[in-house]
Design brief:
Elements lengths: L1 E2 L10 E3 L3 E2 L9 H15 L9 E5 L10 H10 L7 E4 L5 H15 L4 E9 L5 E6 L4 E6 L2 H4 L11 H12 L3 H23 L9 E5 L2 E5 L10 H6 L18 E10 L1 H7 L7 E10 L9 H12 L6 E7 L3 H11 L12 H4 L6 H15 L3 E8 L4 E9 L1
Parallel strand pairs: 4-5, 4-6, 13-14
Antiparallel strand pairs: 1-12, 2-11, 3-11, 6-11, 7-8, 9-10, 12-15, 14-15
Length: 399
Amino acid sequence: MAKYNNVFIPYGGYYSTPFIRWNGALKSENPVVLGAATARRWVLEKDIPYNEFDFMYYGQTIYSQKTFFGHAYAAAVVMNREKEIPAIGLNQVCTTSVTSLALAANDVELGNYSTCFCLSTDRTSSHSYIISPNPTKGNLDIENVVLDNFDLDPSPGAGLKMYRTAEAVAKERGITKEMCDEIVFMRYEQYKDALKNDRAFQKRYMFPIEIKQGKKIVVVDEDAGITPTTWEGLQKLKPVDEGGVVTYGGQTHPADGNCGIIVTTKEKAAAMSKDKNIPVQVLGYASVRVAPGRMAAAPAPALQAGCDAAGVKVSDLSQIKTHNPFAVNDANSEIVLGLKRELMNNYGSSMVYGHPQGPTAGRAICELIEALAVQGGGIGAFTGCAAGDIAGSIVIKVG
């Protein structure tokens, strides 16, 4: 856990690209190259004083070409070699963006660096396979980096498929399929709010991707691969396991995308901010681990721990964003912490727009800041699982 006193994010000093369902428009794009190039375009087009950056946290969770030196490559591209800054690579799966933000906050709070840039990028499409020798069998072991690991709970001894960790929590908490359907339907309606008035809310933080197709440059500026959701349609879906609660409508899908967030001091944040009247302060961070095979239970205690670190109560939060690979995650948090459903995931969540891994939490944090700004300020938090039984949270105050 960590509490911060002088850690700020410039208002507007963050972005997320659209998320594109896997095997869509970004399926052939190298995530290291695309993430770095997008960040470079962003700092130039938004007139970000990138010469103030003095360290980069680079998040990537799915192997690709250039991953080995991705952190060094990305930092050089973003800075255009005009200023040489150190960087480090980071992988905490779904909470990669949160943890990179927290590590940057630690650096700023301690005075190690004054301005850090957190860049996260991933591509679930066209992903890698790991081929390893197996001397015992005299052949090769092959791992499908995305599908094998999306399907498996990594907790030693649990031996459950990922969705069955959600089923285990649902059984313990008395969560029903109807409760999950209600949450899924609400999340889709919340996402539709972000699309109103020609996507006015999304345009507050979303930055388009540019990709080359032949001699043409194609601009991708909207999410792709969203599944239209109706109450009637959800009720017709049967659980994956007979007698269970998890349906294909109540879980997220793999996607591609990237995001970036600046972390700095109060003074520098004010100088970089596009609106100096909207300060964005990072208050606290926490990471927790729960019992094996109980992934969906982890975000609730992580949120509580984050609030404890920040010195606020859960009841002080007026906006909450979650990474919810399953509706059970949100249902459990409602039950355990007594959260009001309408405060959670306004304008969308990963259950609707997809899960590129590393950037997922970063996009949610961008949305959290803007949701707080829209309502005139307040305290909010993000919480989400980090594969298996780990979760992380961060608490932010706006205005």
